[in-house]
Specification:
Length: about 425
């Protein structure tokens, strides 16, 4: 395997990519016998923790009935019904296999519906690894141009410059700049994470989402919320439920099926119906694969108000404890976000409002911190994000804070910060 991994996002692990044997609740067990409290949670999907009984049982039951039919099943209809009941924007739905795929479907629908080609995306927002959207994900400021008029920066070698010719990159959380750009009425869609969670865990500014919704409606621009991370994590209906702003189209993945390869595009009926009546192509051999749909149904049925109410105090306690430990150590840092997903930024003295604020983080020191945590039995993402599940109990949070305090002492003593 190239690099010993099957995704480039698993390469930059300190001190080395790990190999795991099993997961259970909030824990992972590696091949060397170490038990780790896991805050990667599969990069976000495992909101019910590892190997939850209800998911395992549902999948075992379905696999006895068949694996793949190239036809429809009752279980996919049930999954669709549950999504449409939970998500405010979901009048129609199509399932896919990955967030990258359904984001492409959303962009295609928006272009078909508007007759326009250009798409607005924002610095630091991630919408998949395909050529036409892998731009300005984490650009160096030496290449990114002025903040008010960013230069699109490719995220990979091998991307042709022409793949960005229909892309407009803007800073997030600046309503005036976006509104001015949309006035030309040549933009098919604005695509965004409604809370910026691939880079940081940044809240939309007060009134920002509402303002974006208004200007998109007024200019005939399709508003797409990429809820691959926030969907079914921040609330049963995603960030759109939490913030009370309904997009035209939404995309989902990760927590929708607690680790199974399921994604979805949902939205206004007149838009999503273009797949069936408007000549817009959307396909996929494994879309709505029955075993994955069984996992989806079992997951969505588990996402009760009580589950979120259970995660919230534990996440809040963890955030408050980290802030206190860092403050007592005299380390400038911002720990901010949501109880279910938050971000630790060493070196910042106020919460980030956009991607460029995050570039002032002390990233080497944070990697040293995650390495010190790993030695103490806690696995945390090197990019700063922490995901919580329903299985991260008060006792697990207490153990995490003990490890965090020891890791902070270590990196300070070593001069890493």
């Amino acid at each position: 395997m190239a690099g010993g991994v099957n995704s480039n996002f698993r390469l930059n692990i300190s001190p080395t990519p790990l190999v795991f044997e099993r997961g259970e609740g909030p824990y992972l067990y590696d091949v060397d016998g170490n038990r780790l409290i896991d805050y990667y949670l599969g990069m976000g999907p495992m909101i019910l923790g590892h190997s939850p009984r209800q998911i395992v049982d549902a999948v075992k039951s379905q696999i006895d009935s068949g694996i793949l039919f190239a036809g429809q099943t009752a279980i996919e209809a049930e999954a669709a019904r549950l999504v449409c009941e939970l998500v405010p924007s979901a009048e129609r739905i199509r399932f896919g296999s990955s967030g990258s795929e359904v984001d492409q479907a959303a962009i295609r629908v928006a272009r078909a519906a508007t007759g326009r080609d250009k798409i607005v995306k924002f610095e630091g927002h991630y919408h998949g690894w395909f050529d036409n959207v892998l731009w300005s994900i984490a650009p160096g400021l030496n290449a990114a141009g002025p903040e008010e008029a960013p230069v699109p920066v490719p995220g990979s070698k091998g991307q042709p410059a022409t793949s960005a010719e229909h892309l407009v990159v803007l800073p997030w959380n600046d309503l005036d700049l976006l509104a001015a750009r949309l006035e030309a009425e040549d933009i098919a869609a604005v695509i965004m994470e409604p809370a910026m969670c691939n880079q940081g865990a940044i809240h939309p500014a007060p009134g920002y989402l509402e303002g974006v919704r208004e200007v998109c409606t007024r200019t005939g621009t399709i508003l797409i919320f990429d809820e691959v991370i926030t969907g079914f994590r921040l609330a049963p209906g995603g960030a759109q439920e939490l913030f009370g702003v309904t997009p035209d189209i939404s995309t989902f993945g990760k927590a929708i099926a607690n680790g199974f390869p399921v994604a979805a595009i949902a939205g206004r009926a007149d838009l999503i119906d273009l797949f069936s009546t408007g000549g817009v192509v959307h396909g996929g051999t494994y879309n709505a694969q029955p075993i994955a749909m069984a996992a989806t149904v079992a997951t969505l049925r588990s996402l009760t108000p009580a589950l979120y109410a259970g995660i919230a105090p534990n996440g809040t306690t963890l955030v408050a404890g980290m802030r206190d430990i860092l403050a007592r150590a005299g380390i400038p840092a911002v720990v901010d976000g949501f109880p279910q997903v938050f971000h630790v930024a060493l070196g910042l003295d106020e919460p980030a409002r956009s991607y460029r604020d995050l570039t002032r983080m002390n990233r080497p020191a944070y990697v040293a911190l995650t390495t010190a945590l790993l030695k103490r039995g806690v696995r945390a993402l090197e990019r700063g994000a922490w995901f919580l599940s329903s299985e991260h109990t008060p006792a697990v949070v207490d153990a995490t804070l003990d490890a965090f305090e020891g890791a902070v002492r270590e990196i300070k003593a070593d001069g890493a910060i």
